[in-house]
Amino acid sequence: MGLDGDMRTAFEILQPGTGDIPGEHYLRSTPVTVMWGRLPCQTDAAVLTIASGQTVTIDTVSHEGILEDQGKDPLAYFGAHGVDAASVLEDAVAIAEEMSRDPASAGPHVVTGPIFVEDAEPGDLLKITVERLVPRVPYGVISNRHGKGALAGVLPRSEGTVSVFTPVEDRDAGRVGVLPLRQDGERVVEFPLAPFLGTMGVAVASDERPHSVPPGSHGGNIDINLLTEGSVLYLPVQVTGALAYVGDPHFAQGDGEVALTALEASLRATLRFEVVPRTEALAEFGEVAGPLVRTAEYLVPTGLDPDLNVAMRKCVHAAIELISARWGMDEHLAYAYLSAATDFDISQVVDIVCGIHARIREADFDRAGVRRATRSEDVAGVDRG
Fold first, then answer.
1. Cis ω on the peptide bond leading into residue 156 (within 30° of 0)?
2. Ranges of CATH 3.10.28.20 domains, the chain
3. 212: alpha, beta or left? (left if phi > 0; alpha if psi -120 to 50)
4. Closest Cα partner for 359 from 247, 172, 196, 227?
5. Among 24, 67, 207, 217, which one has the highest count of C-beta atoms within 10 angstroms of its own C-beta?
6. Residue 300 phi/psi, 5° resolution?
7. What average pLDDT score do residues 50-75 get?
8. Which Gene3D superfamilies is this protein grouped with (predicted)?
């Protein structure tokens, strides 16, 4: 079941260089500017250099439709689902044609970068503000492949049900993804889009490029669906210039991402990259050892580990440390507060390293004010690596 003709007409296909490009810099995804299945490390050369505080519009490309088990031919793959050639992204076609990867040793994700951010040094935080996320096409794919997912060994039951092509349609309340109740049936199930980038990261202080699937202190494939427009991600800088990258664009994802993927589809992302010096970062959040998200309502520390129970404990520790550093709350009282007032959500359970994130309402601490790092015990270790 393909795309409705009216939808093709109404939806602007954001081919490279077309449409609104609001960033101060523009970064296309080409075989020169992307990595496929691996993430940048300290020895990789930047594809773009920017000043702290500048914005970059990045045309991200989804891996769905270009993978080997889909034929590595997006024109043929999406064409079989009724997508005309003009609605298939030219950069996806070029990446599939000109690049290759070893699925046994590399992940599926296409990541764009790295971007060198001037003045970023190890110990600082890189603040990435998500200013705008625009779908480039009116369709995506949800997949459960290679025996992965929360029900590995049970689903999928047949190869024909691995990848689910999912059109996008407009409604008065916004765009929705549409699914049928039965294979090849009428698309009567609708869910709202909430676009975000599943992968946002900085280079590791190593000469080896990390696999793109497991997230870590560098960020990477964190798959936190709170990172929609207006949100902020803080990452500990590990190498000079940060060498930031993004990818794995999603149109929508439930917490857990249980089948293996979200509704995977390409986005045009406009992001602001800012360096937060170490002294300022310590005063604001204390020691940040891994990804930290901020939304209009929440501060969101994370816990990452192959064992979901350990990831949960790490997230609780990170949340207590954040509350203690930011508001000066005693440890046992912070622990009690978290138990009474904070939701701990499963980001995903399908990326080798599981993710937990906590949603701490900043408004709960409005009367407390923010404790600044003025006492000697607060700033001790400011110059630590």
1. yes
2. 297-367
3. alpha
4. 227
5. 67
6. -130, 90
7. 98
8. Acetamidase/Formamidase-like domains (2.60.120.580)
